[in-house]
Amino acid sequence: MNCCQLEKDIATKSELMKNYDIVKEYDPQPKNKDGSIRWFLYRWDDGKNGVRRLARCKHCGCVFLIQAYRLNKFSEYADVQFEDWYPIGSEIEADYANQNYTGLQWELEHRPVLQCKDEAVVCLG
Ligand SMILES: [Zn+2]
């Protein structure tokens, strides 16, 4: 059991981020061997808002893969910066996920435990 499961009272992202370090930000445009862009994290995104990060809890050391994105311009939430927090076993697993899954592929197979909508934090776990 890690302490992160107990953070259901945290209501704002700034409060949440006091407990985490961002240890890594992945290239939002992973490249093929020939240098061409393999994908944008989300296909409607040009790579500016769609990005993955790795966060580590300052207290227990457990890690989360964060997928940050904006929805496409036709969504009523187009102006909201979303962050979905996925529990992940290790940095190595996160690196693997980053190389093998687009944002949507990852979403379809995994469940986030937290979601930030701009400053608001919603606990889903
Ligand atoms: Zn923790």
Structure description:
With 125 residues, this protein is of the alpha+beta class. It has one domain (13-123). The protein is built from 3 helices and 6 strands. Strands 1-2-3-4-5-6 form a 6-stranded antiparallel sheet. Strand 2 (51-57) and strand 3 (63-69) form a beta hairpin. The two termini are 14 Å apart. The model has no long low-confidence stretch (mean pLDDT 88). Bound molecules: zinc ion. The site of zinc ion has 7 residues, from loops.
Order of helices and strands: HEEEEHHEE
Largest sheet: 6 strands, antiparallel
- Shape verdict: globular
Q: What count of domains describes the coordinates?
A: 1
- What is the CA-atom radius of gyration, in angstroms? 14 Å
Mean pLDDT: 88
Structural class: alpha+beta
Ligands (ions, cofactors included): zinc ion
Count of DSSP strands: 6
Q: What is the helix tally?
A: 3
Helix content: 10-25%
Strand content: 25-35%
**N-to-C CA distance:** 14 Å
Ranges where pLDDT stays below 50 over 5 or more residues in a row are none
Main β-sheet, spatial strand arrangement: 1-2-3-4-5-6
Short description:
The protein has 125 residues and is of the alpha+beta class. The chain has helices at residues 13-17, 91-100, 103-109; strands at residues 20-25, 51-57, 63-69, 82-88, 114-117, 120-123.
Entry keywords:
18% helix, 125 residues, alpha+beta, six-stranded antiparallel sheet, binds zinc ion
